[in-house]
Amino acid sequence: AQSQREKKQKTEERERMNMTKMERNIEKREEDTREQELKKKRERERQND
User: Fold this and answer.
1) pTM, 2 dp
2) Closest C-alpha among 7, 23, 13 to residue 31
């Protein structure tokens, strides 16, 4: 019975790890998108001068 519980715990930990990894990836992608937009904005401002 205990090994069953341990397996379940390990699986839940792994799933939690995967979730945080996915969330970090999403956050990083959003940051990259924001940076790209900032760069484009700066480029346009430079061209307007």
Assistant:
1) 0.56
2) 23
Q: Please, what is the Cα angle at 29 between 25 and 32, to 5 degrees?
A: 140
What does each C-alpha distance from 19 to 7, 22, 49 come to in angstroms? 18, 5, 45
Burial 6-30 (b: 16+ CB within 10 A, else e): eeeeeeeeeeeeeeeeeeeeeeeee
Q: For 1-10, how does the pLDDT look when each residue is reduced to its tens digit (9 = 90+)?
A: 789 999 999 9
Write the DSSP symbol of residue 38.
H
- What is the CA 42 to chain-centroid distance, rounded? 25
Instruction: Specify the number of domains making up the chain.
Output: 1
- Which amino acid, one-letter code, is at 48? N
